Amino acid sequence: MHIHPGSGNRDGFTLVELCVVMGVIALLVGLLLPAVQAAREAARRMQCANNLRQLGVATNNFAAAHNGFPSFLTYRDLPSPLRGAANRASLHCQLLPFLEEMAVFDSINFNVPDQFPSSRALPENETAAGFAISEFLCPSDPSTTTSTTGCQSYRGNVGFGIWPSARTGLASEATMGAFGPTGRVLPLAAFADGLSNTVAYSEKRIGSGLSPYNPAVDWVDLVDPPDPATGADDWTVICSSLPPSAAERGRTDSGRNWLLYGAIYSTFFTSQPPNSLVPDCGSGNVNGVGIFAARSCHPGGVNAATADGSVRWFASTVAAPTWRALGTRAGGEVLRQGSY
């Protein structure tokens, strides 16, 4: 019997069939990979929100124990002549006992001089500052793993970032945020706008720690900064018109040490909306004055905790006046649910 070539069974694929199969697999991978990445980011964003919730709970537990919100600076067992002059540390130090981090709190030496202006803590506190506090870290931020000190993803709201000066005396907006004046507890009655209408904490991306300067996460230290009491709108103009040469003055230490106080490390200003196109810039005076806006690694907005402990998502498109209103505790603004 004559068998025609090719009429019997054959093993394997032809080259054309193999190419088709590989193309289908590549197409499926291309469709599935973004979905997997989106699912992972959703999980990270949820963990980030949970961290902020823990900070909100810790802050309200502090308020229950001390009859008010903590100061934006931490002092401990210091004679009154030293208060306001030295021995300052971050707001977050006061939260450690309420985050089950009492051992870290006890390891901090609050009797050494002021923790500034270096991004490193003084030698007496380098060990304490090296602890990575999980509640302080956003899992979406890649910079959390590139620092030898404990980083800080969540900042306390201290209003518009206007401070006292010899020119103006006490600036009216100096303590408009959720945390009170130096070394004093802020009673809940001070939140005339309501706890739910006042942002307490928001995400802020950690600095790159590397050169060159990255405007998405780093900040520009002005050589000849204006008066510290310069208004928020003036700072917006200044930071919106930085020359290209300003990158040479870029600092990469933002949020890279949770123990240090100020807008460079542990607080932020609501003068600009989340993820503002206006780059962070200002002066290292009082560890940061200028534009230090809320920013996140999540696309489209930031997680933030209000003073009542709840966590909400705020889109980058929120109007600047609305965000500023949420940044004040007693501004008298009327905010409707759904307006932000």
Globular, elongated, flat, extended or rod-shaped: what is the shape? globular
> What class would the helix/strand composition place it in?
alpha+beta
How many domains make up the coordinates? 1
Helix segment count?
5
The main pleated sheet reads as: 5 strands, mixed
> What sequence of helices (H) and strands (E) makes up the elements?
HEEHHEEEHEEEEEEH
Give the total of beta strands: 11
Please give the alpha-carbon distance between the first and last residues.
84 Å
Helix content estimate: 10-25%
Portion in strands: 5-15%
Whole-number average pLDDT?
Answer: 82
What radius of gyration results from the CA coordinates? 25 Å
Strand order of the largest sheet: 7-3-4-10-11
> Unreliable segments (pLDDT under 50, ≥5 consecutive)?
80-85, 165-171
Tell me about this structure.
This protein has 5 helices and 11 strands; from the N terminus they run H-E-E-H-H-E-E-E-H-E-E-E-E-E-E-H. The chain is of the alpha+beta class. The protein has one domain. A 5-stranded mixed β-sheet has the order 7-3-4-10-11. It has a 4-stranded mixed β-sheet with strand order 6-5-8-9, covered by helices on one side.
Topology:
Elements: H1 15-66, E1 73-74, E2 89-90, H2 102-107, H3 126-129, E3 154-157, E4 199-203, E5 219-221, H4 232-240, E6 250-251, E7 267-268, E8 281-283, E9 289-291, E10 301-306, E11 311-315, H5 320-327
Parallel strand pairs: 3-7, 5-8
Antiparallel strand pairs: 1-2, 3-4, 4-10, 5-6, 8-9, 10-11
